[in-house]
User: Fold these one by one.
Assistant:
Number 1:
Amino acid sequence: MFINYEHENHVYNVSIEHKDSYYFITYDNTEYKVEAEETKPGQLKIKIGDKIVKAVIAESGKEKFVFVDGDVFKVKPVELTGMKRVKKKDEEEGLSSPISGRVVSVKVKKGDFVKKGDVLMVIEAMKMEYLIRAPYDGKVKKINFKEKDQIEIGQTTVELEKE
Amino acid sequence: MVLFKKVLVANRGEIAVRVIKACQEMGVKTVAIYSDVDKDAPHVQLADETVGLGDPTPIQSYLNISKIIKIAQDVGAEAIHPGYGFLAENPDFAMSCDDAGVKFIGPSSKVIGLMGDKIAAKKTMEKAGVPVIPGYHGLKQDVSTLVREGKKIGFPLLVKAAAGGGGKGMRIVYSEDTLEESIESAKRESKSSFGDDTVFLEKYLDKPRHIEFQILADEYGNTIHLFERECSIQRRHQKIIEETPSPVVSKELRRRMGEAAVKAAQAVGYSNAGTVEFMVDGDLNFYFMEMNTRLQVEHPITEMTTGVDLVKWQLRIASGMKLTLKQKDLFQRGHAIECRIYAEDPRNGFLPSVGTLEKIEVPTGPNIRDDSGICTGMKITPYYDPLLAKLVVSAENREESIQKMIWALSHYVVMGVTTNISFLKKVLEHEEFRRGNITTHFIDNYFKDWTTAKKGLPVDAIIALAVYDLMHRRTHEVVRYKEADPHSPWKHVGRWRVGGI
């Protein structure tokens, strides 16, 4: 998943994936492998290397407040633009993998016509299976993964041409 | 003597909460007053009875003497606690209370009036044998008289406008050579700024500290002091961090200053809680500065180290009880620090920050006290003082107190308005502060440019946000595909949240 945060007129591009029991965060060309749990609503305990960070997050409309180490920062998530990823429409969001995992099966072939709601792909992670369904009627243009492939969160599973 | 049955608290914010709690502990009924913007404030929620004041403008609400006295009479309150600020040092209010037959919890209106006149107060203290800063406050304002008086006082010398404030019309004179021209330019500046060219001359203190003594006096002349508070850490004459004991006050100096403070209070027939403020110079000479005829903001550090509840004694004394605490029985234990948490933005010239409080989390632990007047959902408005809360800690010694305070500030969460918490931490972490090398110039000396420091979003915050957003991203449909037949229990699972499960 790619997220852009705006703080004091500066935009921070971040990508994050959840794999096994770790979160992999890439920011400013550095990857951070962290463990995290939400100890109570809005309160995170994050293990970054040997360091434990306690963070508190509150949301107010579109704004978010994050508290770390005695300081509070106000941020606003901003629309995804630019090099890393073109913003997807909401319905296309349904074609991206909701989680990092393994492709269990591909239910369609290139050129197939699918109806809204048809299962396109099955992804397994953490002993759960996730269905990727067609968000609209269309023709399968491209299939980006095959069975047993590793897929990362946010990656597009199947490209559909709208009917 | 019996305590009052019902007390009206003529204030808001943390001090109203503090006074209401003390009353409730003692079984005294409380009445809170509130302006329109404070109708859901903690002091209103806490009180036994509440009466609205309407318009939030201070002059229409918390400063409205006739309205407040009428409310006290209507609800049958026997006494009014003024807190600090607002009407606490207004002799007209104290007198109006007397006239209305409502007890004002504080000294007499006469004493408030006398101490409110800074020059008359100094003269009274000088007569009583309390050291005052050598100076000239005379009405003869011709330049030759001022030059003659200035030479008598000695150098360095401070020339300041009688009507002054904010450093306008103020000059520090280091030698006789520049005395005359400094007086003339101070007079010109004063005239153009305040329309009055009266100036005073005072000895300029090197390495000045602000050290004050807490006083308790009953209405029968029994007066004690509860030791000092070091309040040198100030920003634009506003105290921000206070501690006790002071790192420079020896046992011997404490005894002498304490005696002077008691003498000062007795000289004016003081009763109830009060504070005698002294300036202490680099050679540890002390001079009377002024007397605050009310409860101080920073009173909790005295309570933490002496075990005495000052607000309860204010109530007892005002209801006519005798002071049963004896000077010889009072001791200071350990060390306490208070930090004032303000809704102001250190990166924006410390301008007040307004907004809605989205989340508050307060550190807890042994010897941590949070005197707060805020709650989640509350709006911080520009009408009143931006003090949100006072964080107070105590420990065995100064070093441990500082460590505890840094920990506590690091765990104090206020979201929705900008606070000065990070600034307070920086001050406590400063090497010269830790060494106890503090003067009233400390903030100007070491943190003058701090306001402009920008620092951006730290990596830890970015990581926390991303993790949080991934955990809370939109819900996805989750089923066990292999079991996704019409009779499968997974059909009834509904929508699951995906992420950091």
Number 2:
Amino acid sequence: MAMKKLRFSGDTTLWAFIALLVFWYLFSVTLKVAFLPSPVAVLQNIFFHFISGGMYLHLFASLGRIAAGIAISLLIGLAIGLSMGYFPRFDEVFSPLVYLLYPIPKIALLPLVMLICGLGEAAKVTMIVLIVVFQVTVSSRDAAKAIPQETYACLKVLGASHKTMFRRVVFPATLPAIFSSLRVSMGTALSVLFFTETFGARYGMGYYIMNSWTRVNYVDMFTGIVLLGLLGYVLFAVIDGLYLRCCRWQPLGEKHGGEGVSLERSVK
Amino acid sequence: MIAVEDVSVSYESAGKRVKVLEHLHLEVEKGAICAMIGPSGCGKSTLLKVIAGLHTDYTGNVLLNGSVPEPKKDRIGFVPQQYGLLNWATVYENAVLGLKIKGDALKTEKEHISSLLTDLGLLSLQKKYPLQLSGGEQQRVAIARAFLLKPQVLLMDEPFSALDAINREKMQSIFLSLWEKYAVTTVFVTHSVEEAICVGQRIALLTPSPGRIARVVDNPLFGKEELRLCKAYYDFALELRKMAGEIWQ
């Protein structure tokens, strides 16, 4: 819980960033090798790229792929996972299937996916979906299974339909778990994205980094790496922000001591 | 009116047939309140589930106002031991949940809602979430939800057993005043003899598993003011305890 506080307080983020830059700088000065440029040069380069606008194309290409991949994974993963958690029959049928497919290293399927979907966007998004969808499915299923029967009983007495159950119980109850699976998925999606963008791409951060490397332009290469990191940071911050908005009911801090403190209050 | 005639419930466990309720008879007249005491595991909760229409695997007859209970059609107020609130919904949303699911227009119920929330002291807590409330407050929300529904029957499953003694007595009197106001046919399950004397016009004693009604006693002290200050209360409690002791041996 303390972690969450740290991530969102501006001071600590700034200090972490500065510390990272200082270490980087020290390394680059002591090592004096071409493939580790000074952070000053890289930051200047980033600034220059943003002014000239040359970077946006790559950033937005990557962002679009991530967004599409995660959105599709959520749609499919939640539909299957929550249904598995809610209907025991559904779970019996799908669990073996999920357990069988989950451990297959999907990254090995890239050639196949490229053969089927071509070299364009579809292949890249499909790769992200193939990997992320299982994480979402399994964690949302487990969260739905953890809902106590008594919670359902109270709504059943009222004559609630399955649709009402999903809307009022299953979905809101699993939302915190959905958010944490989203955080895990985001990290995975970023790595998969990089990998897919190194083949058959003309835009995207992965392409940019690999292209700079082949051009032996290490400043550009590090520019790409830093921006990819920043992209991830912004995405995580967006997820955390959404979580705080959507899961206000969750108590923060001491679960057993006195009144629960609402998330909003303690995060500021 | 609630009529339970010759109801038996059993389930399969590890290849054995376990009886939970056996040939159980119970009748609660319209607008009456019946307290039910029994040792733990005697099938009290199962009986409530049968009456609520949640548990349909039984033999015998259960009738609510002359027809088989159907949660989709009937208006059944249910207050479980663990409050049964949705932690992700505010106090207000939890209270009106029954009305919403039944498709009632909240606008026409506005006065009803605010008067009940006032009676239960929940008006200032409306925007809070259950996990920010004390146990007593959560229980009041559960009761608000049950009464807002304007139920035909009210089923209370040891609703106050998680509260401390002071809060429990407070809740008992709040509950009774609401019950008088709405005149709902009620079954009130408890494990406390004292609570049964407080809230039951009649008190049914259940046998240990498999549950049957061993005895139904009329409660001469029901509705008496300052109950806990009368000697008769303690005498009656003692008498009930003796009775229960014989049955539960």
Number 3:
Amino acid sequence: MSTEIINRDAIHRLLSVIGGDKEDLLELLNEFEESAPLLVGKMKAAATEANLDSLRISAHSLKSNSRDFGAVTLADLCENLEHACKSGEVSNPVEKVGEIVRALDVAREALRGISLHDG
Amino acid sequence: MMDDPSSITHEGIAPSRAQILVVDDNRLSRKKMRMAVEALGHSAETAENGAMALELLKGGTFDAVLLDIMMPEIDGLDVLGALKDDKNLRDIPVIIISALDDETESVVRAIALGAEDFLPKNFDPVLLRARLGASLAKKRFHDQEREYFSRIERLTAAAEVLEAGRFARKT
């Protein structure tokens, strides 16, 4: 299940980038867990206020973080929203953020099912 | 500052521990970049925004900057512009970090502004090593060149003083 949602190659690459220390990888995963709800909170506020610039920046950050951990669907949704914000045409931003929230929940659940210590 | 910028081997300039500034508003990216830089044997300081980056750059000695483009308020291009306008900082190589999927235009602008190179956000560690290594080698060469010309200037000035002294005694 989790392998369908999370691209493990991305996690292996991340581990390789940071020098192979799995404790460091866990620290980054904790950072992902802590920062994702904050970014989503900013996105919700920005969507409600139709502040596309703020929405774009938060979507950009969540996209980067999701890609680092191989959360492909979540990253793609964030990327689509980021592009829409850049073009100035976002139809129903609140609904778009809602989709991202659901994808984030799925990704976090899948990440919890992956033992980072297994490599 | 690098430990021993004057150490040159017959293969080229020897690698040594460099001081790298990582600039990114995203906490996770900042941590990842710091870990990546330290994994290569260098030390890293981090800045979470453009203003902090410029403050650290003016107060410290950095051998290279890894700079995110998209940041709120003072973005990476603004930081790069300010750095290149400062004669004391303009020789520090800057490697732009970009998502690339929709930032190609910004990367091109950054290169035009004087960025040394760029890296995609999801870079391969081999690529970071190669691009950082090349930038640091250029920086070392430049530092050595500057030191050499500085010595020449001092020697020339000293020679002129001696010369003037001789002429003074004769008259």
Number 4:
Amino acid sequence: MTMVTPSLPNSQNIHRETLANGIVVLVYENFAAQSVVVRGSFRAGGLYETPEKNGLASLTAEALMRGTEKRDFNQIAAALEDIGADAGFGSGNHRNSFGGKSLAEDLDIVLDVLADSMRRPTFPTQQIERLRGEVLTGLQIAMQNTRYRASRAFYETLYPANHPYHYSGRGSIQTVTDLTLDDISEYRRSVYGPAGMIITVAGAVKAGDALEIVRRHFEDWQNSEQPATPALPELPLLDATRRSAVALPGKTQSDVVLGAVGPSRFAPDYLAAMLANSILGQFGMMGRIGASVRERLGLAYYAYSQMDGGLGPTPWYVMAGVNPTNVDLAIDRSIDELRRLGDEKVSQEDLEDNQAYVVGRLPLQLESNEGIASTILSMEIYQLGLDYLIEFPDQINRLTAEDLKAAASRYLTPDRLVIGIAGPALN
Amino acid sequence: MGEVTKHILKNGMTVLLKEVHSAPLVSWWVLYRIGSRNEQTGTTGISHWVEHMMFKGTDKFPAGALDKAIDRAGGSWNAQTFFDYTAYYETLPVDKYELGLEIEADRMINAQFDPEEVESERTVIISERQGAENSPTFWLGEEMQAAAFRVHGYHHEIIGDMFDLENMTRDDLYGHYQQHYMPNNAIAVAVGAFNSEEMLAKIRALYEGIPAGEQPKLFSRPEPEQNGERRVHVERPGGSAFIDISYKAPPASDPDWFKLSILSSVLCGPSGLGGGGIDNKTSRLYKALVETELAAHVDGGLVPTIDPYLYSISATVRDGRTCEEVEAAIQREIDRVLEGDITEAELARAKKQARALFAYSTEQVTRQAFWLAFSENFGGYQWFENYVQSLEAVTLEDVNEAAHKYLKPQSRIIGCFIPTGEDEFSFEEVDE
């Protein structure tokens, strides 16, 4: 068999370099495809905005490509679209993300546009007002979206108003309407900078060439005012199960989000919780939740669980879309599964199946340049080390049923949960 | 990248193989030549429901066993029902790809359709439809199709009409399965890090023993010519207005499809074949609608179909603006195109974009295998292999000719979703 078995990205084939201004650059060569993908991350986001200016981090990120000192809006669009390339920015709570994709020979253009947008945006008034209108239209549509509203109800109930996770990154119609050009400009100027920035490149490009291009566009960037990462407020413990429901006219299905605060990526039991979550609502047709809510009862088209495991105390939750008459039953069954996961050790078969699953899916995750670049970026953000993927199977296979039970019972408290519901009728 | 080889098994099953050794994976697709286009009133949505039942077990792999087997192997699998086909796939690490071959051979003839599972799936599918109904654009899309196709099967949504979902029987579903699931009605494709000779031997061993069935007679009624513009209004609660302008378009096998595709790229931005799209801020309609603050978003494109379908332009109307204003702005751009003002530069850009998007779409074995099966279904996998060349061959004259042939008011359908204002309400409660 003439087979190529590329090794996983590791310390031998990931080129990692720290630029003089602190930017960490990671390059992975992959000549199997014609494209190149950039994925980056830097310190900015919801943590660096106040509740009154909720949505500022996101609007600023979206406004970056509306005009720079070097190119106006149309020139930025043409620079990318003329060559079939794409680039953009996004905003999270702790970090902003950016990325791009092009044919390998066009990497310079993509990195030039990204650097220019971050470092020299001009935020032209007319462009920003146009963008604001588009964002507001998007928010009006989202406010009619049951998944969005159920999720909002969940987050707003789980996290208190003094916590950044309480808020949608997109802001509200009120706050986005009130944000000023000065807010945007000042946010970019004070928060954006090279400290804490990570840039990964994966694709049909030599590491030396990619590094040289990144260096040329980014290494002379300085910002001495970059703030330290703000501390998150303490989270109060839930004392009871709280439901928050919203009824939207004209809907035929209800969406439910149910859960609690889960581990951060840095928690010692993160991997145990991740594997427990796989059993709960991922493995097979969406794990035990899928089997109970969808397969056995036929209640829902989708039902699964998710554990975000980010830089802070992100949630661990079940999501389902169900007929309004079945909301309570779906909630009860889901809570039964949460309780079971914390009360009973999973079977050896369940444990081994899920260990094989999370380890075995790596080749599929790493097939594309997007998959490779995103994975290497996560390894750097969470300080997992360049050999993380090599060590990963051992770390997973070492976990026991007892570890999973302990993690589940620590986070998923069946009588102290938050439930967000949005649908046609109140439940 | 290897060449595609085509083989017809003794029972009539079409097999396409393509070796790609860039990642240690194999993607295996089996596509049946049956989709919503062939469904009759009373059993609309049956192809999609049968697709769901294919995950409900056989004697060899009981319900639930398959999901676990695939996940244990580190693979992914899924299925999709479209107007023109129903298709299934497994993408697995190369040392485990035989599992995919075994699953599809087994469920080609041994799916159980347990009556209890049929009933349980009925509510799941109704829930799937209700989930879609929560989106305003679903209602508009459904009305647009119904208005565009009075006779042809493209008139109903793939998910099916609610009445049919509530009333279809287990016998209907099983009958559909028996009538259409057979090797001589299937196109199978493998793309990945295998050796073609070994792969073909394994496929023969698993599939050649499955007897051919009677070639199914497909229910298919051609759509009569449309003789005048049709208009649709949908009024429901929603966050904003949407407009959709659709023109009758040629089938994918028609060379005109590529001409219209270039035209669409100029008007609305390029549509790729999956694998990462790009923005459309340099497209004519973005400039005419979004930059003028009439719309928050615009896109458009052609769907590659067996029978003539639609070329659609869709826009999200900005708050304070109306469908009529957006429609007038779109018409102005259509008029410009009809006057023949597309430039060589725009044509060249559309082609460069197509080259890049095509490169992105071929980076994953799953997507390559899909497109080979997909295009083989309407006449030949070469459609996909030659996709870029077909677009490269399009001239400015071709684009102008296609514009005049297809962008006619007499053969279009204009739809508007108008949001009605109704109040929401909410409450919170604590379970003690």
